[in-house]
Amino acid sequence: MTVERNRAQERGDVVVVSNRLPVRLVPGARTPRFEPSAGGLVSALKGVEGVAGWVGWPGAPVAAGARRQVTHALAEQALHPVFLDADEVEGFYGRICNDTLWPLFHYFVDRLRITEASWEHYVAVNRRFAEAALAVAAEGARVWVHDFHLMLVPAMLRAERRDLAVGFFLHIPFPSSEVYRLLPAREEVLRGLLGADYLGFQTADDARHFRSACLRILGLDSQPDSVQIDGRAVGIGIDPIGIDTVSFRDAARDPETADVLAEFERRYEGQTLVLGVERLDYTKGVLQKLRAFEHYLEQDPERSRTTTLLQVLVPSRLESPEVQAQRDEIERLVAAINGRFGRPGITPVEYIHRSISRSELVATYRRADVMLITSLRDGMNLVAQEFAFCQTVPGLPRRWNGVLLLSELAGAAQVLPGAVLVNPWHVGGIVERLAEAAVLTQEERKARLETMASRVAQLDSRRWAATFLSRLDTWARRRRRSRVATPLSEASRRRLVKRFARARKRTILLDYDGTLRELTAHPELASPTAEILDLLVDLSALPGTQVHLVSGRDRATLGRWFGSLPVWLSAEHGFVERVPGGAWRQLLDVDLKWLPRMERVLRRVASEVPGTHVERKACAVAWHYRQAEPEYGAWRAKELLLMVEQLLPGVPAEILLGHRVVEVRAVGVNKGVYVARLFPHGREHNHLVLAIGDDQTDQEMYAALPPGSSSLHVGTGHPLGPTRHQHQLPDPESARALLRELVDVVRPTA
Ligand code: GDG
Question: Which residue among 10, 105, 315, 398 is buried most deeply as judged by most CB within 10 Å?
């Protein structure tokens, strides 16, 4: 760790990047005035220590002429505004965040609206946030990016600054890959997120869905705690967010809260108070809650004398006609229930459509008998934790023990063991649980509350942030220490091209599948394109140059595809070779008696796993599962490995794991055997040797190269663990581009 980095951490080096700043500009004020922003993210981050800067949108449009003044006023609080113009707010926030990402990530496919033209606003705004963060972040700083608004920022930061530790936390759910895949920019978003060193999710389900999306959409393998990409591991963790318990404890002990509470006690004396607190949003299931309450009263209309539902609905995004319609529907239902079950002096549903003060909020939490949360999906739901905590604040008298009725589709359901869980879509179930809650004994209520309260204390937002940041440190440290493949830099590329141009003799060793040619769903579909054939011909035509295709493919296919070209062929991992225009020659004499039995085993598995097939080669047999359902395929591959291992003792064969292929081949047959025979006396002076490959079988080729050779590895995923330290090219296209450049530098085009 550098001295600067040490210092940065001592100072408190965290740069928070979130859509909103913790304060928002009061619109219309002459001089800039700010008020606290609403919402779960800001509440949770309030108590976090070590924050050196916070980058975000000030929450309102600011005229160009007033921006300096606003920037200046915010700088005093280490806040760094990103100003968005009306078009950007509309495209980025309105279309992409609210119309597309929010419904999709909450499983509301029927509300999903996709405006492809607005995607460029999302990209551009993410870039502005990234630039603002880069300007603020010290050398070696930790940048903590928040939520679905900014999912491209991690990769943008990574591309510019390798010194930064980049963390990302998703506050909302990550949906099943079946839903996520509907997003047109699904690949870009995953790659954006994977720019981070560490990604935190609210629940284990979210992390599991994310890994599954990486596998199914990008083909990236992962472990439960990490995903491999670009030769590095991105940490994945489950970090359920908590509340700022210190500020809630203080608010609960505040005399003002005590006054409000005393007022509530008088007001609701003898009443069962059912409480609801949410932002106005369809994910929160307020309509479902009201319908359930209506049924509850229907079941026994006398309940309207003894039970009141107090519903606090905090205004949110009221500029959207959809949100207005939702509000209107809620208000109609409230009016209908009151019209039907109310009496003089009795209003079964009390409804507040505005923000209430912290003291009022805490007092209602303390007074409530039942907290009813029926979110249809919720990343966490902090209200649930706030209720459990406020009910049990130590040192305050307790006359009530409330019950938490909580939707099983909220992340909070996975961290609050004492809650009574409800399926928000099952009205009858909610009614039953409400009736049970009303008669639950005080002892049981107390026991449930206490289990929840101790869990909420553990989840506290300060601890949450500290844990997140220490996990981020661990993964960033691992990345900084690892010596895995690094992208081929411009300087190294120039050096290679120069050496290539000057060499008197050149030997180029190329793997085919995944190196020269993109992998395809079925191996037969990967025949060479005209571009590849031309490239091979042009390379071979350079003076003093030999091109060798070193492949695992069978000789018939290689012969068919490349037999007429002036290139050397090595098929079946070095088992047979062919000089240009010559006949195939076997290099090794091996015992193959084990092969038929092994083939039977593999064929049986292939018949059981749809989308897989067996490839029989002269001295090997392979089971390909690239087209199988990825998780099932990987599981059957593991099982097959165990089976094969049991058959191997005493048999001259070995297992080879490629990219979604399990191969069993004769011992001693590998690409290295072929390569080593090419250089019996090492490399001559001014002889350039370049090998390019893409998977584990190519490691043997690199290892057999004479000293002073160059090797490049194609591909960003390293499913089989880190490779030797070497340079990397992102994909076959860039490998072809490099080879074309090599041709052109020796034989300039007309
Ligand atoms: C997102 C995710 C996740 C509400 N009304 C008033 C008020 N609030 C405060 C609550 C609470 C916060 O707002 C709401 O937090 P939630 O977690 O319930 O919901 P979202 O805003 O949707 O937050 C969510 C969260 O991020 C954190 O990761 O839990 O799933 O959707 O803190 O207390 N505060 C005051 N008056 C009100 O009227 N003072």
Answer: 105
